[in-house]
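I would love for you to help me understand the pair of lines that follows before we discuss the fold together.
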Amino acid sequence: MDLDDLVPVADHVTRQSRVIEAPRSVVWEELHRLKLSSLPVSLVLGAVRALPVLLAGKGRRGLDRTFLDVVPIPVLSSEQPSAVVFGGVLQAWRLTGGEQPPALDAAGVREFAEPGWVKIGMEFRLTPAVGGTHLSSETRVAATDPATRRRFNRYWLVVGPGSSAIRWEVLTAVALRAEAPAG
């Protein structure tokens, strides 16, 4: 499975990647072990974004959880050691997170058309590279209607750079851990 199975046409796309001097199995392990508490940029940006949600009593705690465990959309596919793909629908621009999204499989995300939502697909892909592993992250977002697209565009103007910064921080943290000398 890849993002074309979820969000083949997107309003917003972000991509980050880097080569890590370690085997795919090690990079995969470090990606899945990476704790949210070890990501300062993600913590600060996440706290700012989560404040209205927490004040509304909807938030969950979890600094001891892994980064992949706190992604706000569910894992739809995990193919060790090649890719982990997340997908779902959200109302992220709403201060308290919006309505509870329906649980959807890949086809459900792709075909979802109810107005007032954005479809989101995100993946981390690991491919062999000269000297190690190419780790990439891609996020795609598509609104289900023009009014939602306008709302989300305003939200993304503010949040998009932080979202990219979080992905860069994750790729860097994985690289530092995977390339660290054993022991």
